[in-house]
Structures are given as C-alpha cells and as structure tokens.
Amino acid sequence: MPLPLPSPGNGTQPASIALDYANVTRSHRRLYWRVQPPTIRAAVAEHARLGLQLLSEMSGAPQQTLASALAESLLLVGRIDFFDLRQPDDAESRFVEALQAAGAADSQLLGSAILAHSAFVPGWAGEREGAAERLRAARVYARRAEGVPAQFTAWLHAVEAECETRCGKHREALKAIGRGEEALGEGADAALPEWFDWFSPVRLAAFKGNTQLKAGHLPQARETLLQALAQLSDEARKQRTVVLGDLAAVEAAEGNPEAACARAIEALDQLAVTWYAAGMERLRDLRRSMDQWSDLDCVMELDNRLYEWRTTVNALQR
Fold first, then answer.
1. Residue ranges of the domains in the chain?
2. Which phi-psi region, left, alpha or beta, contains residue 51 (left: φ > 0; alpha: ψ -120 to 50)?
C-alpha cells in the first residue's frame, strides 16, 4: 500500500469526512487493548486503506486532520505486526508508510513516535547502530515539535534502554533509564497527545526491571518488577504478561524453578485472554533457561501449558 508524497488533494470530500475518519481511528486505539491482534489488525489495516483513498480527495486543514489519523492507524498496524504478531518486516513497511502520512499532516511529534517505534526493529535484531540512528532522528523530530511532554521524552529514553539491552549494552541501558526517570521528575509537563497511550511511569518501571534483569541485578529487578506489576491497570493485559515473564526469569536466575513456573503460568493465563507475541517470547526464553530442571513436576506442567493446542497453534501462526 505505497503512499503518495504529500500534496494537495482535489477537495471533493466535505471537511466532516476527516473528523469522521479520525473518530474511527480513536475507537481502534481503544479496541487494541482488548481485541485479539489478528482481528483488530484486519480492521485497522482496512481503515488505513480507506484513509489513503480519502487523502487524495481532501485538501487544506481537513487533509491534514485526515493524514494525522491515517498516520496513527498505520503506526498501530506496525505496532501490532511487531509486538503482537512478531512480523518485523511487515512492521517496517507500515512504519515507513506511517511516517509519510505524518509528513502529510506535518506532525513532528507523531513523526518522532513513528521513528522511535521503527528503532525497535534493528534494536531487537541486535543492530545497535541502526537503532541509534533512528532514535537520533526521532529526537530531532521531537525537538522541532512544540511543547514536548516530559513523558514522551522519558519514553524515548526507554526505547533507547530497550534497544541497548537487546544489544547487550546493559550499562548504557541503565543510564538511559536514569535519564528517563529524570525527565519524569522535572516538574510541570505539557499535555500528552491523545494518541500517546502506550507509555506511563509504570511502563518505564517495567523497562527498568527488564534492564536490571538482563544486567544481572536480580534483587533490584524483582523489587522493580513487583512494584510495576502492582501498579499496572486492569487494561494493561499485554504489559502484564511481559512483567510476569520477567519476574519468572528472575526466579529462574536465582534457582527457584517452582516460583518461576508459577509466574510463567500466570503469564500464560493472561495470554489465553489476549495474545501478545512479545509476552510469549519472554516465556520461551524462560523455558530455554530451565532445561536443567526439565524433570521437575512444575516444569513438566509448564510444558503442558506452553504446548497445549491453542498456544501451540498461536505460536506457529506467528
């Protein structure tokens, strides 16, 4: 679905079309947290196709409004592809299209968000330089925006920390987390854009706990992750699976297989409600670290849950 370069449309559609389109985008944003990933992805992708067609039929301010909503829709498809379905190549294409739509809207902050998301693709593949370059671009776009919220700045630091952690640079990751905490503590804050619904101080704590885990700071990781788990809202089902997976990894690293399995099964219970490939990835990594305890009853029970029909089919499909 290649996007055209931003250009004036023919203005054949009334201005109200842009607002109607944006209202559907807003509904998809809320549905994402509850609806199964393949289902919501299909709806959002079709909505994006409609937006692409309408973009050429709008002009002036309504075209910018529609382009902004289209950029958000394409970003959401990319997020689903990357985090929920683990299809990084597809996500990469959607992020490029989203950036083009953000350009049509002349939305610097949304462009920054898209670029930062795109940094996850090389970051998770261990390509540190590629991730750093995209984050550098994201910060440039953020600097050009007016009134950047401290929470958005903290998220950029959290993305850096995640990428550094994935690349084995744990000290640098912890420094990035520290900068994120400093950003949140700077006092008065600008209003968050309504589309920025994937990050909060508790999400920064979850990033921090994972970084501490990978750095081998196990007692600190447990404390951070437990605090994050207690503060997660009921809506944060996907994040809960990730935090539970990290807590399980802490227990395994400290030689507590029974506790590790208990946390992992909690995570699987969440995945049975809402699938999240990033959460399942945590559990697969955990299980690979527990081969020495394969004969324990708790580990065999975990295997039963990991490889039950629905979970196995979901994993193979992704």
1. 13-106, 107-199, 216-318
2. alpha
